[in-house]
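Example record

One chain of 291 residues, shown exactly as stored in the release files.
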Amino acid sequence: MATLEQTKTEFVPLASSRTILSPPRLKLGNLAAGSVLLIWLFPVYWVLLTSFKPIREINSAVPIFIFKPTIENYRDLFLKFGFAKVLMNSLVITSATCAVVMVLGVLAAYALGRMRVPGEKHIALWILSLRFMPPIAVTIPFYIQWQDLRLLDTYPGLILVYVGFNLPFAIWLLRGFLADLPLDLEEAALLDGLSRLQIIWRVVVPMILPGIASTAIFTFVFSWNEYLMALMLTSVEAVTVPVTIAKFVMPYTILWGDLSAAVVIQVVPMLAVVFLLQRHIVRGLTLGAVK
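Predicted structure tokens for this chain:
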């Protein structure tokens, strides 16, 4: 009994020695986190607020938070500036870029991760190094080449450029996801007579679907927000949303209402994609962390 009581008395300090935040410290931490969150979200809130303000309230010297909302800015955006076509351009170009990058990225990543390719590590590093190239360094060569090929201001011209810039990053990410997968299922599929393409489609793709979703989101965001190449390689027919938003900043005035409305519309597709694939994002980022 003495031994048990001694053990209990010795166990209590060990259990109580754990660091537990007191209520005042916990409240202070929550207050600090909430303050940081408000600072980060206030520009988003202000842009959303400005998009529904009348022009008189937008140009007021004193910030106005309470006003009668209006959709005038959104109406002008679509009726005067033809934003519907611009939005469609960005959706088509970005969606096509994601589809091509995902197909080519999975095939290239599987070849580098599963097949015996001479110097595969050096090839993978070289592919990733292509992503390090600043776009400004190749803008003029692309412009001259695309002018000769009559690809300026066209969907294929911009899609090819976006695929070239996003494919190296996608290959590198997908190769990392593939490296964490066991080979047993693929070897069993080979014994069953499946071809390499059938193995990729039936075995590999379902297993790395979270990684594919995460890579697709990165590709979508990079392509959707790209500005420099779209500015140089488009003019009328294939103009994208970022280029159009920049045109609201004029030499002698800034169309704050139309600009804010365009920014809100630009953010909506990205938020929709992220929320729809949120579960796959978390699984993709943690794929291979626990073995």
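Notes: Residues 23-70 form one domain.
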